[in-house]
Amino acid sequence: GPAAPPDPALEQPVLEPVLPEEQNGTDSAKAPKVTCEERNTTGIERFTLQILNVSQDLMEFLNPNSSDCTLVLFYTPWCRFSASLAPHFNSLPRAFPTLRFLALDASQHSSLSTRFGTVAVPNILLFQGAKPMARFNHTDRTLETLKDFIFNQTGIEAKSDVAVTQEDWEGPLPSVLTKGIDWLLLFSVLFLASFVLYATLRTESIRWLIPGQEHEHQE
């Protein structure tokens, strides 16, 4: 017989695609996966990374009507992997002056982390306009692997004379760990403790309602 129409309640929402980077040695010989509109660098003297503060929205910095590309880093200042990545990511704007580079504290932009699936940090996404196109998946996070990733995805070659300098270790992205409170972890622990306490008290109250339990207690 004819197939039954799909149940709307079972349909999954359509999410913005985030394509994982293909770790294939022949990628460099293929056509670029993302065609980026390179920005005009005339009049720009200093190419540097921009860090968003807690009041700034990433979507305000991404133009959905353009095809320019932006590399966005999700990090936390108390993550040692974020700190070790910092000097290498700080040097990228000089290696690719025609691209834009942004970074944001994932703990201050939790809604964005949920939206783009950045459950772990550091997490690097390549955007074309306002659409995420690729995710950096290498565990070896160095200037060279980052340059290879951008080239494989966009076909844009890095400047050969760029290297990590002492200034890159100093900022703008911090390479020194800072003490902080993981509010999400703290909330989870408090919620779990409250639930256990509630369950214990609830169990005791039910116990006294069971016939015969109060007599056993008196004996």
UniProtKB/TrEMBL annotation:
It comes from Piprites chloris (Wing-barred manakin). This is TXD15 protein. Residues 10-23 have a biased composition (Low complexity). GO terms for cellular component: cilium. Coiled coil: none annotated. It comes from the Eukaryota. Gene3D superfamilies: Glutaredoxin. GO terms for biological process: cilium assembly. Residues 25-155 form the Thioredoxin domain. Keywords: Membrane, Transmembrane, Transmembrane helix.
